[in-house]
Amino acid sequence: MNLFRFCSGLKVLGYFMILLVVAVVGVSYYAVVVSTWWPILIRSDHGALSALAALIIFVFHFLLIMLLWSYFTTVFTDPGSVPEYFRREMGGGDSLEAGTSTDQGAFGSLGYCTKCRNVKPPRCHHCSVCQRCVLKMDHHCVWIVNCVGARNYKFFLLFLFYTFLETMLDVIVLLPSFIEFFSQAIKHSSSPGKLASLVLAFVLNLAFVLSLLCFVVMHLSLLSSNTTSVEMHEKNGEVRWKYDLGKKKNFEEVFGKKKAFWLLPLYSKDDLDNMTSLQGLEFPTRSDIDP
């Protein structure tokens, strides 16, 4: 029985995840801005408190914009699939038997996908959910209804980064109100709806912070060694991964060489035109840079 044929059902679950993301953002916005800090900003007579409220609201909106920009860029960016011309130029699938690989010049060792009936460039893997081969596949993410691969890995990392910062901010600025929740609930000094949104927002953001911390640490480790989640199981205890070019070059392989674009979910034209790794077909190895 092939259980992988049920994997396509994860796409349906993914659309509910998008709605969940929007719902969490909405609840957090109401709790942090509408219910807590905006009233302080417009009603406070203390300059310092008003300035703090203005700063929190500004940072919240900035991180929210970057979070949503990175998120939807990840969702709508194709991670990369094997182009039609690649099979023809590399000799076609007919000359490669299933389970074999061959050396094809600059492209290194090629594999063959029995499901797609096509050759696979280096670091390419078949996704059972998307039903296709994905270039430099990291994993299929149900939260974005998409694979994370060569062309959207940077955007995914930025999504994790800005989401972690946003949820951490929410937890910090909601903590005083959360502590006061119990006394307000006893005195019935606040509306049930306001209290419920406050508790829900705090608990959800705290849960996201704790879970995202693990993902951020894991992907920072992968980024520093130029490794994908799939490749963690392929390194076979190697002392140093063949695609590990050093921390600086590993970072540039994902984020590009233009520093002005590092924190933005987009690439400069020069990086897109000149960096082969962003195309997902050819990747430099240690042998290319070591004497």
Short description:
This protein has 291 residues and is mainly alpha-helical.
Mean pLDDT: 83
Please tell me what the overall shape is: elongated
Q: End-to-end distance, in Å?
A: 50 Å
User: What is the oligomer described by this structure?
Assistant: single chain
Low-confidence stretches: 1-6, 93-108
Report the C-alpha radius of gyration, rounded: 23 Å
Tally of helical segments: 8
The ordered string of helix (H) and strand (E) elements is HHHEEEEEEEHHHHH
What are its keywords?
elongated; disordered N terminus; two-stranded antiparallel sheet; 3-stranded antiparallel β-sheet; Palmitoyltrfase_DHHC; single chain; 54% helix; 8 helices; acyltransferase; mainly alpha; 291 residues; transmembrane helix
How are the elements arranged and paired?
Layout lengths: L9 H34 L3 H30 L7 H6 L12 E2 L5 E5 L4 E3 L4 E3 L4 E3 L4 E3 L4 E3 L4 H35 L4 H33 L22 H9 L13 H6 L11 H4 L2
Antiparallel strand pairs: 1-2, 2-3, 4-5, 6-7
Membrane topology: Multi-pass membrane protein
InterPro entries: Palmitoyltrfase_DHHC, PFA4/ZDH16/20/ERF2-like
Family: Belongs to the DHHC palmitoyltransferase family.
Write up this protein.
This is S-acyltransferase. It catalyses: L-cysteinyl-[protein] + hexadecanoyl-CoA = S-hexadecanoyl-L-cysteinyl-[protein] + CoA. Residues 110-235 form the Palmitoyltransferase DHHC domain. This protein is mostly helical. Helix content is 54%, strand content 8%. The protein has helices spanning 10-43, 47-76, 84-89, 153-187, 192-224, 247-255, 269-274, 286-289; strands at residues 102-103, 109-113, 118-120, 125-127, 132-134, 139-141, 146-148. The strands form 3 sheets. Strands 1-2-3 form a 3-stranded antiparallel β-sheet, with no helix packed on it. Strands 4-5 form a two-stranded antiparallel sheet. Helix 2 (47-76) packs across helix 4 and helix 4 packs antiparallel against helix 5. The longest helix has 35 residues, at 153-187. The chain is elongated.
